[in-house]
Design brief:
InterPro entries: ATP-dep_Glu-Cys_Ligase-2, CP_ATPgrasp_2, DUF403. The chain is an alpha+beta fold. Helix content is 46%, strand content 12%.
Length: 832
């Protein structure tokens, strides 16, 4: 920490270099150019860390983002981007926040009541307060929901308002979000990152906690379900969603079951989750799927994201949905133009947080006003994010239009004014951002969240702040390269610690396997298989690499093991088909980091990470981090030219990380159904791999060198030598590889663990009849236990291998979902 004088000098330098825009309000300096008191306090504490201390803390925040796997996807891209968190929070004093929270809560209540009317008696339209075209013109008006009483009594349960400061410095609403508001999870993750990077500032500034907000929301939706122990699901569009990482975090944090449409099914008038124990009722859904895609029977028939029959379940009052399908109607700009009047009519009071001035061109008087003074407005679509008739363009500033564009837009508004709105041009206010070691003003927009509770609306004390990298921004989008920022609401008193622990009596104690969704079981199973397959591939590469280093000292017979190791990599798809013409060293490296080879260690680890990404809410950060670390190491290795010793070192370090990952899963993963399927995948893949190793290296033509290679691949050399004084012999080696119940690498050991897992998993029916996978595992285990190593040959070993593959298929048939997007169907073909 630096001295007070040095800190003050640094703060003075930062402020002197800070140059806010003249025509927009700024968070750091007031209209008179003086720094605001709360920012001065923050900057003085920040400056006390010194340049080196600051960079260390900022770097730690960046590493934690990578470690936690916080990411997002730009629409249309296949690869996720690391989350761009700004280094400084947005600071809002308590007094100012009270006004924001009151305005957002009022607005949420108003919009909920409007939805009740529009989908109910429609008095607002009948009495002329609202124009019908302003409602029916929106694609988010869901006709099947008309006349439906929302289960739990709320159309809105989770609302968000995008706000920014107007030219006078007062906050205004830029847009309403109710379809499937995103950003709350990122706000939570931003807080976790920045509060750990700057813990003393976070504590000393009395920053209000976020946990009570999420606790209240969870309690509210749980109470609305009206069951003692409701099952609450977060319905996600899936891993290709732009904000899937956020959805995973929210499901994990709140304890909700993360489901995709194919995980749900309508049965007996209710929604159910497909689990390994059969269908289990879904009592509440927090949807992140747009309403038009929620039910292919009644809306978009092409949808694969929703579940057929969801709307009927809602009509029957069998499931609580946040937010109700059709709530997205309030996002239209056309409705925004009516809100000042509607607030007076519905609530009997003016809007506490007014929205940006809006004129809907579907009303003749407003259309004429807009056309006559087009240069004064920003024109955009009334019901969409695109300006009708102008391609991908989002809006048009009247004063910036060419004469031809102006004429075309004027004609379009006159012909079909219902499709257009005019708004006062918005220039976003600015907040300090950290760039190149200095403070710089950047435009921002703040998304504030509100949740309906039994006591009314509660507002998250903070929000999702997006900061533009352009000074002339009128809108801020993460897809356009914006940064995010934590939002600190500064209280006047010390803050008590808060968690998600319930405030009432403890819930019932549960020690069951858990009703694991079938899709989750599928992906956990394949994650286990791929991790084991990656380890087997790297073991072959390590063994081959070690022998290549001693090639000049190996006789002709000893070269057999090299040839067989290389042949095995080719057969597994780890090396290309033309690999026999390649140098063995090239084969080794292709099998390690060849991105184009579907069986290479790099490719298989990527498959494992893909499966893991679908069930991230069930994995600890450590597991996710270790899988990512292996992928990163192998990816970097494949991207650059490295020496043979460096390549072998990468292989060794990757094997060490895989060993750490296996230990983490074994020791830290709760022994519930999820762990069973990871371990089932590992055991089946290991048993199949051991059979293949045995056929390759312990056939009738086996030599001491090939048997040694087999023992090395099975990590059993030390045990074998401690048992047998003589060198490697065929029957003892086969016994250790195939039939030894004490060897954790043997096929029998895997069969024993597989049988134990299947015995513990739930049956679909309580009829006492053994299910097919268990029957197969018992027979396989018994035959291995009674087998004689002296009679083992390639044909018998192959038969065991095929039975293991058949058992894997039967496990999939019994426990997994087989939709078009299911994990089992999206995995690459099995390696022969």
């Amino acid at each position: 920490m630096e001295t007070d004088k040095a800190s003050q000098q640094r703060v003075a330098a930062w402020i002197a270099q800070y140059a806010p825009m003249r025509d927009a309000p700024d968070e750091l300096v007031d209209p008179d150019g003086r720094p605001r008191a709360h920012w001065l306090q923050f900057l003085e504490s920040l400056a006390a860390f010194g340049d080196i201390g600051l960079e260390q803390r900022f770097a730690a925040a960046g590493r934690r983002i990578d470690d936690m796997g916080i990411s997002y996807r730009v629409h249309g891209e296949t690869k996720e981007r690391s989350w761009p968190l700004g280094r400084l929070p947005l600071l809002i004093p308590e007094s100012e926040w009270r006004d924001i929270a009151a305005g957002v809560a009022q607005r949420a209540e108003l919009l909920d009541q409007i939805l009740h009317d529009l989908y109910g008696e429609a008095r607002l339209v009948a009495e002329g307060v609202l124009t019908a075209a302003a409602i029916t013109g929106s694609s988010d008006f869901i006709r099947p929901m008309c006349g439906v009483a929302p289960p739990g009594g709320r159309w809105l349960r989770f609302y968000a308002a995008d706000i920014g400061r107007g030219p006078d410095g007062a906050w205004r609403v830029l847009g309403d979000r109710a379809q499937a508001p995103s950003g709350a999870g990122y706000a939570l993750e931003n807080r976790m990152i920045l509060s750990r990077a700057l813990p003393s500032l976070y504590r000393d500034m009395n920053v209000e906690r976020l946990a009570p907000f999420f606790r209240d929301f969870r309690a509210s939706i749980s109470g609305a379900a009206q069951r003692a122990d409701p099952r609450i699901c977060l319905l996600t569009p899936g891993p290709w969603s732009d904000t899937y990482s956020e959805q995973v975090h929210l499901a994990r944090y709140l304890g909700f079951t993360l489901v995709e449409g194919e995980d749900l099914v309508m049965s007996d008038g209710k929604l159910h989750v497909r689990t390994i124990a059969g269908l289990k009722r879904a009592d509440a859904i927090w949807r992140r799927v747009d309403a038009d895609w929620c039910d292919p029977l009644e809306q978009n028939a092409a949808s694969r994201l929703g579940v057929a029959g969801m709307f009927e379940a809602i009509r029957r009052g069998a499931v609580v949905v946040a937010n109700m399908p059709g709530a997205g109607l309030i996002e239209s700009r056309a409705l925004m133009s009516f809100l000042p009047e509607l607030s007076e009519r519905v609530l009997g009071e003016s809007l506490k947080l007014p929205n940006v001035a809006t004129w809907w061109c579907g009303r003749e008087s407003e259309r004429d006003q807009v056309v006559q003074a087009l240069s004064d407005y920003a024109i955009s679509g009334a019901f969409s994010d695109r300006l009708p008739g102008f391609g991908e363009r989002r809006e048009a500033l009247g004063h910036a239009l060419s004469s031809e564009e102006r004429a075309r837009l004027t004609d379009a508004i006159n012909q079909r004014g219902v499709d257009y709105v005019a708004q006062e041009p918005v220039k976003l206010s600015t907040t300090p951002a950290w760039a190149d070691g200095r403070l710089t003003p950047r435009p921002f927009a703040l998304r504030v969240f509100a949740a309906a509770t039994a006591d009314g609306w509660t507002v998250m004390p903070g929000g999702f702040c997006r900061i533009s990298n352009r000074l002339d921004a009128r809108a801020v989008s993460m897809n356009a390269g914006a940064q995010s920022s934590d939002v600190w609401v500064l209280m006047s008193r010390p803050i008590e610690w808060s968690t998600l622990l319930p405030s009432d009596e403890d819930p019932p104690i549960v020690r069951a396997l858990g009703n694991l969704p079938s899709r989750a079981a599928d992906n956990l199973f394949w994650m286990g298989r791929y991790l084991e397959r990656a380890e087997a591939t790297l073991r072959i590469v390590r063994s081959l690499g070690a022998r290549l280093g001693e090639l000049q000292h190996i006789d002709l017979q000893g070269r057999q093991s090299i040839e067989r190791l290389a042949r095995l990599l080719i057969a597994w798809g780890a090396a290309p088909e033309d690999a026999p013409d390649m140098d063995p060293t090239q084969i080794t490296w292709a099998a390690t980091a060849g991105a184009d080879n579907y069986g290479s260690a790099l490719s298989v680890v990527r498959y494992a990470r893909r499966a893991a990404s679908i069930v991230r809410e069930r994995l600890s950060q450590d597991v996710w981090q270790l899988i990512g670390r292996i992928e990163t190491r192998l990816t970097r290795a494949g991207a650059g030219a490295i020496t043979e010793p460096e390549a072998l070192e990468i292989v060794e370090r990757s094997l060490h990380t895989l060993a750490a990952l296996s230990g983490l899963i074994d020791e830290n993963f709760n022994r519930v159904a999820g762990w069973s399927f990871i371990d089932l995948g590992r055991r089946i893949e290991r048993a199949i791999g051991t059979c293949r190793f045995a056929r390759q290296f312990a056939g009738d033509d086996a030599t001491v060198e090939t048997l040694d290679a087999l023992l090395e691949l099975l990590d059993s050399q030390i045990t074998y030598r401690s048992r047998y004084i003589a060198g490697a012999a065929l029957a003892p080696v086969l016994d250790m590889a195939m039939l030894d119940p004490f060897n954790p690498r043997s096929v029998l050991f895997q069969a024993m663990r597989i049988d134990e897992h299947l015995a513990a998993l739930p049956n679909l029916r309580d009829d006492g009849v053994m299910e097919p996978p268990r029957r197969l595992s018992i027979k396989l285990r018994a035959e291995l236990e009674s087998e004689d190593a002296h009679r083992l040959d390639a044909a018998i070993i192959l038969a065991f291998e095929q039975r293991l593959m058949f058992l894997a298929d039967k496990i999939a048939e019994r426990y997994f979902t087989h939709g078009a997007d299911g994990a089992a169907n999206s995995q690459p073909s099995r390696i022969a």
